[in-house]
Specification:
The structure holds three protein chains of three kinds. By secondary structure, chain A is an alpha/beta fold. Helices cover 44% and strands 8% of the residues of chain A. Chain C has helices at 3-11, 13-34, 49-66, 71-76, 78-97, 99-109, 118-141, 143-148, 151-171, 178-195, 203-220. Chains in contact: A-B, A-C, B-C. The structure holds iron/sulfur cluster (SF4) (3 copies).
Chain lengths: 373, 419, 225
């Protein structure tokens, strides 16, 4: 019942006041609140240790803000982002978002199916028009190719536009809905697009990644739920809290990079010693994401820590950004033998043309008896 | 005057050899630091590669798209007569074509050869210095640029008999060696004839001289006139062929030697049927082979000797070890080396015909000063040289700067020390 | 257009085009020069031409930059050979032995090689940059070099300097985000690739001609130290 406050709804579900405060603190940290004004004014040392003071604004917001209705649409996706979210090992946060903040519609998660659930979505859209958050997962084919993604007889493009019309803000979750992702990889057979290429009149937040980091999803939704505003975004509409620095900047292998110690294959001595994966194609230096800090599976690990180079999955067109195992500095394309051949031929032909002209000049000069010889 | 003859000459001369070197230049300016005329005057336009500028422009403008584009865009002007006039002052009055720059260039560009081509271009336009033109005409007329015509030679050759008792071997068919003197010797070093005769006879060499090949001097090489060069060299070539000699010995001429040895085969398009040598090479070899005997240490007499490397005979001729061998033998440890020696030797300042250009006197004497400094540094009071032009310049220079330094030729020294 | 798209263009099609232009341009230059004809030298050699050529390259490649034989001449304009030598050394070390650049070669020619630690490469890059600055200052003040310097020479310097400085900034994440610097670096390389065949930077190709000629000429006369 979305009209109750978040706190009320939690209380109804049996969350104690103590747990509620703990959660508020977690939120505060997830949202990067360690430096929030109340905390600094308190004069406490700036440590990551939880302080109830940090959570104060969160507690206040949770006690007063109504629950936030969320509609979650999927198009050309693999459900990986949803999966990541539900399997995330910070259940307190994600279950909070999934259960407590109202997810009114989610195809994969809802028990109901077919017309029934479609009906529910329509109702929710009507009821919360102008208030709900639209979460989109998956890329959307447009134009003639829109037919590649049809749900309940309607194209994804249509469904998105309809849902976007009443949304307060749109959160594109994952690289597909943000930037087109895998479906948009060359040659993009379905003419897939990210949300922001289709919808231009709504605030859009891109939580890119393949999948998106669950803490980033929940963090952003929570931010909106609690403060009613969007977090600060970068040029690609990504929240700066999570996309402010590159993976490389926070990478635990960075010292090896600086020292020029690289793994050259996945099973060499360097790999065993945990050397930098740059030469194995790591895209960390140009990839903005918080894998290296938040990590995955409750901070257990992330690809680079586990020995795999960063693929750059939070950046646009990362599928086309050169081979995953090709060094990042390498040019994207290696000239085709035919193209090189053509260039060689062009050079030689031009040179030969010049040669003919030049030898004619010489002959003419030779023919002129004068001055010399 | 039109630019066409020059352009034609440049076009004809510009093969891959020239073009690839023009393309290789990085404009680093290092060559300037080797050039005696730049160093002596500090004038930037005397930088060796700047002397090649007309050829570079001609090449780029006639043979490359980039050059044509540059002219079309107005970045670079087409070569004009006025340019050639300006460069005539640079290429003739501040260059002895000594080739030191070629050794200093980090890219290894044969700058001095390119300068020679530019000089030919300037000459084709009729803009060569009057002094050189006059000498060229003189040589075409009487066989010697110095006005030493046939009768002078006859007198000189005749004098051999009264001096040494041996008749001059004129036009001896089947002789081993044709000896070609220069008209500088007949003017200022007449004893060379007698001294050399003594040496050659002692060594048992069948030698000959010829009226048709009496002067190794080649104004065509100096001024850059291919036609003159071919005609003058052709006389010597034909005489040598006619007499059937196995060797040509050039006495003390530098450019005459390299012209005969290195240029003539290519000018006439044939390999020479004889060997071209120079006294700087021959005399020490005769000593080494025991054909003549000299008194070791004959010149150990309180003087300090040093050897001047001539641009044409040593750097460009490659005859660097031989004269040193002779000098070490004759002067022992009183023979001292200067700083810039061998292929790195410093020009005396008087090569490349510059001594015939009055306008260049200042440059010439300024360049000599560098040589003087090296001579003084090593403390030598006798400078030995194997080139009579260098010897004249050295004498001139020492006199001009009031230095009591003696200049000696190798021929006279060997002849004197012979036993 | 966002940075990623620009980067993709700069590392992709633009680089590709520049590289092909470079190949075509250099071949044009090569063919034009070679086709001007070569005369056979008929003069009897006094020394060995082949030895001369070997010595010429040794002298030009190794001895010249740091142990100049023409000591006096080099001492008069030491910046040219010290800074010039260091610049070239830095260029080779950074471009061939730097990890990032080796990967470029690897992607182009199919195989790679071991690289030097970043600090070494980085210091060499800094040395190269300083040398370049010294070179341009020298070029602007030395009377001969001033005379020999036209717009093209200044552009030569600039187009070589830009990749160096952007590359350096990139490794140090200076002033701009990494990927913006990456774009600038790649674009400056692309400009350079196009500029080389149009300019005297192509001396690296004709160097082999002039050094060989030098070796032949001096070796032939036996005047090669
Ligand atoms: S593994 Fe990747 S992100 Fe980490 S230091 Fe190396 S290049 Fe950077
Ligand atoms: S040949 Fe000798 S005089 Fe002429 S430019 Fe070169 S160094 Fe100077
Ligand atoms: S030293 Fe060589 S490369 Fe440098 S300016 Fe002179 S000719 Fe050109």
């Amino acid at each position: 019942m979305p009209d109750e406050t978040i706190y009320q709804s939690m209380k109804n579900k049996g969350v104690s006041r103590r747990d509620f405060l703990k959660l508020s603190g977690l939120f505060a940290m997830a949202l990067g609140f360690t430096k929030a004004p109340p905390f600094e004014e308190s004069g406490l040392p700036t440590s990551l240790e939880f302080s109830p003071k940090v959570a104060e604004p969160i507690v206040r917001a949770m006690e007063t803000k109504p629950r936030l209705p969320v509609i979650w649409l999927e198009f050309q996706d693999c459900t990986g982002c949803s999966e990541a979210l539900t399997r995330s090992n910070s259940p307190t946060l994600s279950s909070l978002v999934l259960n407590t903040l109202t997810i009114e519609y989610h195809e994969t998660l809802s028990a109901a199916a077919g017309f029934q659930v479609e009906e529910a979505k329509q109702q929710a859209m009507k009821k919360y028009a102008g208030q709900y958050i639209l979460v989109v997962e998956g890329s959307i084919p447009v134009g003639e190719e829109a037919l590649y993604c049809v749900i309940g007889g309607r194209t994804g493009e249509e469904i998105l536009k309809e849902a976007a019309a009443g949304a307060a803000a749109i959160i594109a979750v994952g690289n597909c809905s943000s930037f087109g992702g895998l479906p948009k990889a060359k040659p993009n057979p379905t003419n897939a697009k990210g949300v922001w290429e289709i919808i231009t009149d709504k605030p859009i937040i891109n939580i890119s990644g393949c999948p998106a980091i669950p803490e980033a999803i929940t963090g952003v939704i929570a931010h909106y739920a609690l403060f009613g505003t969007l977090p600060e975004l970068d040029g690609l509409h990504r929240p700066k809290t999570f996309y402010g620095v590159t993976v490389h900047d926070r990478c635990l292998r960075r010292p090896f990079y600086e020292a020029g110690k690289f793994a050259l294959s996945f099973d060499d001595e360097g790999a065993k010693k945990g050397y930098c994966l740059y030469k194995l194609g790591c895209k960390g230096p140009t990839t903005y994401n918080s894998c290296a800090t938040i990590k995955w599976d409750a901070g257990l690990s992330f690809p680079i820590q586990s020995g795999h180079p960063c693929l750059g999955c939070s950046e646009p067109n990362f599928w086309d950004g050169g081979g995953f195992y090709q060094g990042q500095s390498a040019p994207l394309e290696r000239p085709e033998v035919t193209a090189v051949g053509a260039a060689v031929a062009a050079g030689v032909v031009l040179g030969a043309g010049m040669a003919v002209a030049n030898s004619n000049q010489k002959k003419a000069a030779e023919a002129l008896k004068g001055g010399s010889k | 005057m039109s630019i066409e003859p020059t352009m034609n000459l440049f076009v004809k001369k510009t093969g891959g050899w020239v073009a690839s070197q023009l393309e290789a230049c990085t404009r680093c300016g290092m060559c300037a630091e080797a050039c005696p005329y730049y160093l002596a005057t500090g004038k930037a336009e005397y930088a060796p590669i700047w002397k090649v500028e007309p050829l570079r422009r001609a090449y780029e403008q006639r043979f490359t798209l980039i050059g044509k584009l540059k002219v079309a865009l107005g970045v670079e002007k087409a070569l004009t007569d006025a340019d050639l006039k300006a460069w005539s002052k640079v290429d003739f009055e501040a260059c002895s074509v000594c080739g030191k720059c070629s050794g200093a260039c980090p890219m290894g560009i044969e700058i001095s050869s390119l300068i020679a081509t530019v000089r030919a271009g300037i000459t084709a336009a009729g803009l060569a210095p009057a002094g050189l033109v006059e000498k060229t005409e003189m040589q075409m007329k009487c066989g010697s640029p110095n006005g030493m015509c046939e009768d002078e030679y006859i007198k000189w050759f005749d004098s051999l008999e009264e001096k040494t008792g041996v008749k001059a071997p004129l036009d001896v068919k089947g002789a081993d060696m044709l000896v070609v003197y220069t008209s500088l010797e007949i003017k200022d070093k007449r004893h060379n004839l007698y001294d050399l005769a003594k040496i050659l006879n002692a060594a048992g060499i069948k030698w000959t001289i010829s009226m048709d090949a009496r002067d190794a001097f080649n104004m065509g090489s100096i001024i850059g006139n291919p036609k003159v060069q071919k005609e003058l060299a052709g006389k010597i070539l034909n005489t040598a062929k006619k007499l059937g000699v196995k060797q040509i010995l050039v006495t003390e001429c530098g450019h005459g030697f390299t012209t005969l040895r290195d240029a003539v085969p290519n000018v006439f398009g044939e390999e020479l049927p004889f060997f071209v040598t120079h006294i700087a090479e021959l005399l020490p070899n005769l000593i080494k082979e025991g054909k003549i005997k000299v008194k070791e240490g004959y010149f150990k007499n309180g003087h300090t000797y040093t050897f001047h490397d001539s641009c044409k005979i040593q750097r460009q001729g490659g005859i660097m070890d031989e004269p040193r061998y002779a000098l070490k033998l004759l002067a022992g440890d009183t023979f001292k080396e200067m700083d810039s020696i061998r292929e790195n030797g410093l020009c005396c300042g008087g090569g490349g015909g510059i001594r015939s250009i009055p306008e260049a006197n200042e440059n010439r004497l300024a360049a000599f000063k560098l040589k003087l400094a090296e001579v003084e540094k090593v403390g030598a009071d006798v400078v030995v040289s194997t080139c009579d032009n260098c010897q004249l310049q050295l004498k001139d220079g020492f006199k001009h700067y009031n230095k009591a330094v003696e200049v000696k030729g190798l021929i006279e020294m060997v002849a004197e020390a012979m036993i | 257009m966002n940075t990623q798209t620009m980067l993709e263009l700069a590392r992709g099609p633009i680089f590709y085009g520049a590289l092909l232009f470079f190949i075509a341009g250099m071949l044009y230059r090569l063919v034009t020069v070679i086709s001007l004809g070569w005369n056979k030298d008929l003069a009897k050699p006094r020394g060995d031409k082949a030895t001369g050529v070997v010595k010429s390259f040794l002298r030009g490649g190794i001895i010249f930059p740091f142990f100049p034989r023409e000591k006096a001449a080099y001492a008069r304009n030491p910046i040219v050979y010290i800074a010039g030598g260091l610049f070239h050394l830095s260029l080779f070390i950074v471009v061939i032995l730097g990890a990032a650049h080796m990967l470029v070669w690897k992607s182009l020619i199919g195989f790679g090689w071991p690289t030097l630690p970043l600090p070494i490469v980085d210091w060499m890059a800094a040395v190269g940059i300083i040398a370049m600055v010294a070179l341009i200052v020298n070029r602007m003040v030395h009377p001969v070099m001033k005379l020999l310097t036209g717009v093209a020479e200044v552009l030569n310097w600039l187009f070589v300097f830009l990749p160096m400085i952007t590359g350096y900034m990139m490794t140090h994440h200076m002033f701009l985000p990494y990927e913006n610097l990456f774009v600038l670096h790649m674009m400056s390389i692309n400009v350079l690739l196009v500029w080389i065949p149009l300019s005297r930077i192509s001396h690296f190709m004709f160097y082999f001609f002039s050094r060989t000629i030098h070796g032949v000429e001096w070796g032939k006369r036996n005047a090669m130290p």
